[in-house]
């Protein structure tokens, strides 16, 4: 009883609570422009994340969620030098065990990218070896990370992984 009350109080402090509803599916794309490189920021509070290469655009994204209030927010700010792409989960918490939240993100293999990922809880599969990476940062609270960096890197780059509770498997070139 005390734990339920504490969970409700914490959920109320972090954002409004919504109950799961019908499954929503959405796709979004961001076209390539004249940007020479891009910073990709991924912010997901909880869910299943899949990131890989293979898009002819900067981003091709498939989202699955169980409430319209959970619709991911995709923003792109172009620049002649460094574009800024962010994909974020709204500040809403889903209630109930049937909650479903999945992102499949495909990024461009040619454009130099810095990939910064912030995950609260969940599982992440990041197959980044085909990307033209400049750097990778992952900040994860609770969950599992499977990161595959095998490929033919075009340059040396730094990889930072900060984790809380869970497992991380990293495959290197």
Largest sheet: 9 strands, mixed
Work out the radius of gyration.
17 Å
Instruction: State the secondary-structure class.
Output: mainly beta
How would you sum up the global shape?
Answer: globular
Strand content: over 45%
Alpha plus pi helix count: 1
Question: Overall mean pLDDT score?
Answer: 87
Low-confidence region ranges: 1-14, 94-98
Question: What portion of residues is helical?
Answer: under 10%
Instruction: Quote the distance from N terminus to C terminus.
Output: 50 Å
DSSP summary, beta strand count: 11
What is the element string, with H for helices and E for strands? HEEEEEEEEEEE
Model description:
This protein is mainly beta. Helices cover 8% and strands 60% of the residues. The relative contact order is 0.21. The N terminus is likely disordered.
Considering the chains and any ligands shown, give keywords for the structure.
8% helix, 173 residues, mainly beta, 9-stranded mixed β-sheet, disordered N terminus
Topology:
Layout: H1 2-14, E1 16-18, E2 24-30, E3 37-55, E4 59-65, E5 73-77, E6 82-88, E7 92-94, E8 101-108, E9 113-127, E10 133-148, E11 158-171
Parallel strand pairs: 1-7, 3-6, 3-8, 3-9, 9-10, 10-11
Antiparallel strand pairs: 2-4, 4-8, 5-6
Quickly describe the structure.
The protein contains 1 helix and 11 strands; from the N terminus they run αβββββββββββ. The strands form 2 sheets. Strands 2, 3, 4, 5, 6, 8, 9, 10 and 11 form a 9-stranded mixed beta sheet that branches. A two-stranded parallel sheet has the order 1-7. It is mainly beta and 173 residues long.
């Amino acid at each position: 009883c005390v734990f339920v009350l504490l969970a409700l109080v914490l959920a109320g402090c972090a954002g409004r609570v919504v109950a799961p509803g019908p499954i929503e599916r959405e796709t979004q794309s961001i076209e390539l422009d004249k940007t020479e490189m891009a910073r990709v920021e991924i912010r997901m509070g909880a869910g299943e994340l899949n990131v890989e290469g293979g898009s002819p655009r900067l981003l091709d994204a498939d989202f699955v969620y169980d409430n319209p209030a959970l619709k991911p927010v995709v923003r792109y700010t172009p620049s002649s030098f460094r574009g800024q792409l962010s994909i974020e989960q709204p500040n809403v918490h889903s209630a109930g065990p049937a909650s479903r939240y999945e992102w499949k993100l495909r990024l461009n293999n040619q454009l130099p990218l810095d990939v910064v990922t912030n995950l609260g809880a969940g599982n992440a599969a990041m197959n980044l070896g085909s990307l033209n990476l400049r750097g990778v940062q992952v900040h994860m609270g609770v969950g599992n990370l499977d990161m595959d960096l095998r490929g033919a890197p075009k340059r040396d780059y730094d990889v930072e992984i900060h984790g809380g509770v869970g497992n991380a498997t990293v495959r290197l070139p």
